[in-house]
Amino acid sequence: MAEAFTSKKWALWVQPDGPNTKPEYLGCHDLDDIVQPGGASSLLLCFDHNSPTGYRTVGSTHEPPGPVTTAITMFINETADWMETINCPFPLYVQGWKCGKPDVFGNYVRWFALAHAEKGDETLAGLSRRSEDVESTQAFAITAWPPVTRGFTVEAMRQSTSETEGLNDIAFCNVAKCADECGESQAVCDDGCAVGDAAAGSPTNEADVICTSSGGGTWTATTFDPFAGGEDIASFVCFYVGADTVRHVVARGTTDALNPAEIAYSDDGGVTAWTNVDVGIIDGQFAVGGNSLFAIDQYHIWLVTSGGYVYFSDDGAVTWTVQEAAGISGGADFICVWFADENNGFAGGVGNVLARTVDGGATWTAVVGPVAEAANDVQCITRNKDSDIWWAGYDGNTRMYYTTDDGVTWTARAFTGSGVAGGEVADIAFYDDLCGWMLSNTSGPVGTAHRTRDGGYTWEAVATPTNAGLNAIWPCGCNLAFAVGEASGGTAVILKISGGTPS
Questions:
Q1: pTM exceeding 0.90
Q2: Are the CB atoms for 273 and 325 separated by under 8 Å?
């Protein structure tokens, strides 16, 4: 039976300068109860003389949740406390530990976090007494945006699949919901798909799309495949086009000298034939990596290709227009594209090619990247309303960089395994301002999954099962992610990384 926590087994931490900065330990501090208002329900009633109460419930309304509240109290010392120096919103962490020392940020067995906390009322107590000597304290009321993040240690477990070829990308499509008139309940990341390669040397073998509707319990290939034999599938996105209709879009990852780049889409999960669409008019183009497709919704979809092209669709991937035609890359391949919102995006590719747009891709501007290697992925988290943090994962020497000024300057972020020659950071995927996931590969290649809980300042390596390289990761939360990679031991690698399961 797991041991219950007591107050002495919790450690308090803050990030005075926001996510992706050094966490500071607050020893000898009292933390008041953390209260997270859930939002009350109000009944909708009708008179009903047949009911024992005289009323019949016909529905309910729900109030929005209120701010999370708590307070921090500490002694007044000769030197300033960290809480006295904070003037801007900051993350607050409460970490439960069992062994070792509490003042080590990575020493925890579970944790709670407030991503956006702010100081309110301040109280100074015990400053002066006429005839008694009492402790002098200061207290800071805290309000924070909901929700309270609940975190746990995680482990990676390999999922069973009959797929024999490597997998290049993965995405989940459904939203979490309770059972209602629209259907059964669903948890986050119940319905998703992974896409992969065609069998090597087989012009008749078609690359598969394999899907799950059970949160990864089982993975089954779609009835029909989207592309011709011998053509890989590089990238996959999905989005709603109706109340319960999800469109799956995949991009061909193999060149076809006689045809331009190609996508295919299906509104029934590949049960019937896919609809294939040529993108552009440049023969031989193709999607290079798992991050070559990006979709906000059916009206905002981007595809980057070999040769340095960027394409855009505003009608669910049915038609495409050229936004960038090799002018920035000089013909080098674009590998990845990612948008923080409808206007602000980055694209990256071979030879440290980076491009930025602030108008939805109508215009793209070259950005000087951090190192002369290939950018495999770009991602963004919002640090505050005025500042975003863009991340880029690089090939060649297993490096990861971030920028807080839209690419004017870049800073390397070290992690276990970084800087190793021949390796790569294959994918970066943030769930929110604090929690993110990353994949790194050695030159072997052997892949390792990593998690950050503090906006990217520290990255914890997750014990990862045997594999031959990992390609893509999908964040479902702070304690749940799925990753896919090359075939190992005869089948493709699918990992479910999770923690906090009730026992």
A1: yes
A2: no
